[in-house]
Amino acid sequence: MPGNGKLHYLMNKKHLLELKNVSVSFSPGIYAIKNVSVSIKPCAITSVIGASGAGKSTLLRSINRMHELYPNIKLSGEISLDGKNIMEMKPIEVRRRIGMVFQMPNPFPAMNIYQNVLSGYKLNKIYLSKAEKDEIVEKSLQDVALWDEVKNSLNKSALSLTVGQQQRLCIARTLALQPEFLLMDDPTSSIDPICTNRIEELMYRLKDNHTIIVVAHNLSQASRISDYAMYLEKGELVEYDISNVMFVAPKDKRTERYITEQIE
Amino acid sequence: MKDKVLKIMLFCSAVVLLLLMAGILYALISQSIPAFKHFGFFQFISSTEWNQIEGQEQYGALSFITGTILTSLLALIISIPFSVSLSFLIGELFVGKKIAFWINSFLNILAGIPPIILGIWGYYSLRPLLISLNIGHHGYGIFSAAILLSLMIIPYSTSISTTFFALVPMKLKESAYSLGATRFEVIRNISIPYIKKCLIAAHVFALGKVMGETIAVTMIIGNINYIPSKITDTGNTLASVILNQFETISDLKFSALFAIALLLFIITAVINLMARYMIRRVVL
Ligand SMILES: Nc1ncnc2c1ncn2[C@@H]1O[C@H](COP(=O)(O)OP(=O)(O)OP(=O)(O)O)[C@@H](O)[C@H]1O
Ligand SMILES: [Mg+2]
User: B50 pLDDT band (50/70/90 cuts)?
Assistant: First the structure.
């Protein structure tokens, strides 16, 4: 079973993320996800697959409480973190423990590279000494394998980086806050193969002490990186299993059809 | 057929407008020439003399240029906290809510108040208040005028600034929220820096709008022809001196007033162009 090597870590931090009958609708009666119940495996990578419009982004975003920014979105059901309903926690606590990486890199344009890495601290008004800042910046950029490329241009605008570098910067910015969970919505969609490789390697390293849920760019990425997989269709969670099992021998007809289509 | 008529009409009105503009500019320039010839352009704009005694006539615009710049800048400084917070309330915090509608309506009413009414209010209500606070000379002065001007700036700069809040990409705000920021932290650290230049441009725009404002300012600025040394001093602006001194029989003074009008025209035109350029640069 994946993730077992970090039992020690798991005993200190529980890393339990559970969804119970979660439904999300953008307009009354129309559901983007319907009755999704799942218990995410800690310190492992779970990939989410499904056709466009299946509700993958919606699922990830609701775990981060992004839906609250839009008054028209209604969420029902319960999402719990270590047994506590996240809706009853402070949004800041939820979002700091559960970091999110978006499909398109979106570094803050008014900040330089250094400031972007620390933006989470700035936004949360957490004051750090210069030494602490330097350490966090170096460590976070090392984590995403960007340090060597940018260490001499930390005060350059983040927009001067290539798209792939920007995406790694955005991951670094999320990692800097030391979240326990990472939600990644197709993080490699705008990135070349070499960079994609880097990010996949990074995820592989991170799962030692992070629980990652990633919307995979395609089936082969999902099978390369994930320990578990969820297949969504029309807002329903059709199948959830160890990814190698699911990709080789899906239990549901719908999953089988999707996988066959993707392979062709 | 109808299209043709419409085209001709559009064309004609454009031509008329251009001719009108050219006419105004021509009048301003040709009437100012005697003053510029008599005193010299640089002497005229750098002198603070204003002597109307026959035979010793001396006219210079510097007091009024400084008066205009001081009142406008001060008005701008007073108005910025209000317009930025109001535009933030309407454009961000209460966007789409009833209260935004009410604030907006209130601002529209404020924008529509004729300056003479603000002037009367300034004269009879604001001045006594300033006197009791011991500001200005009997409540007259640069500061008093700036308060009235800021009341005229606020509706404009607010309504322009409001539209800019909508320009902040939702993606950026989402990323900030995903890092645990609260609403106010997002506004302070993401939205405002993103539209900072737009906000500045909006205020420069509003500044150009009120620089030539005359009636209300003339009623309360004190109309003294010297360079004010502090903001509570009395003074005069380019616009108020024209209103004050326009009844004149002296040809030279007449020309000097036209020269002042020309200066005001140039300053407002430059500021308007600057604001447009700034907005275009950041928006496009
Ligand atoms: N802001 C929105 N307003 C209304 N409906 C929306 C909105 N965002 C998403 N939806 C709808 O919700 C459903 C799920 O969308 P979602 O973005 O979660 O799909 P997805 O699986 O992430 O698709 P993709 O692979 O294209 O990213 C779709 O039917 C979509 O039309
Ligand atoms: Mg999506």
Answer: confident
DSSP state of B124: I
Helix, strand, coil percentages (3-state) for chain B, rounded to 5, are 75, 5, 20
Average pLDDT over residues B63-82: 91
Mean pLDDT along residues B30-51: 90
Q: Does A174 touch chain B (CB under 8 A)?
A: yes
What pLDDT is attached to residue A31? 94
What does the CA dihedral B107, B108, B109, B115 come to, rounded to 10 degrees? 90
Q: CA dihedral defined by A151, A153, A156, A159, rounded to 10 degrees?
A: -60
Give A250 to chain B, closest Cα distance, Å: 34
Q: What angle do helix axes A163-175 and A193-206 make, rounded to 10 degrees? A: 10
The CATH number of A17-263 is which of 1.20.1250.20, 3.30.1440.10, 3.40.50.300, 3.60.21.10?
Answer: 3.40.50.300
Give chain A's mean pLDDT: 90
In this prediction the pTM is 0.77
Q: Which residue's CA lies nearest to atom 24 of ligand 1?
A: A52
Domains of chain B: 58-283 (1.10.3720.10)
**Tens-place pLDDT, residues A200-209:** 998 999 988 8
A52 lines ligand 1 (CB under 6 A): yes
User: Phi/psi class of residue A231: alpha, beta or left (left: φ > 0; alpha: ψ in -120 to 50)?
Assistant: beta
For chain A, how many helices (H) and strands (E)? Answer: 12, 10
Q: What is the pLDDT of residue A10?
A: 53
Domain segments of chain A as ranges: 17-263
